[in-house]
Specification:
135 residues, alpha+beta
Length: 135
């Protein structure tokens, strides 16, 4: 019994020490890796249509084939707490990361992007784009 208790205490102390070390480690800095951020929000023409939303999500995911996009995240509205500062009026979002502004410019005129617009623009009523670069 004493041996089991000692192992438990030793393990607990080691885990606590490891957690303290891990929490003191800095987070990964993406500033050097992908400093250009392109965030787009889409409002559907038929906001209640899950089918249209899913078609748009599928269309956005085709953009991942563009070589200058380093990371692509596609999202739909989360069921989070309703607050005055939260805008959940949109339906689909895309969050892209690029190594540089030239890569983002390449994306804008890339045939896959132009094909996405041609195939999916009938689904949205409004689009807002936020472009940012790490400060």
């Amino acid at each position: 019994m004493k041996s089991t208790r000692r192992k438990f205490i030793t393990t607990t102390v080691a885990l606590a020490a490891g957690t303290a070390v891990a929490s003191a480690m800095p987070m990964i800095d993406q500033k050097e890796e992908w400093p250009v951020i392109h965030h787009v929000f889409f409002w559907l023409k038929n906001p209640g249509s899950i089918e249209d939303r899913d078609k748009l999500v599928a269309g956005v995911k085709t953009l991942s084939k563009i070589e200058t996009i380093k990371k692509l995240r596609v999202g739909v509205v989360a069921s989070t707490e309703k607050r005055d500062v939260v805008d959940n009026s949109w339906a689909v979002s895309e969050l892209m990361f690029f190594s540089d502004l030239a890569g983002q410019a390449t994306y804008q005129t890339h045939p896959i992007h132009l094909e996405f617009i041609k195939n999916c623009s009938h689904l949205w009523e409004k689009v807002i784009v936020y472009d940012a670069i790490d400060a």
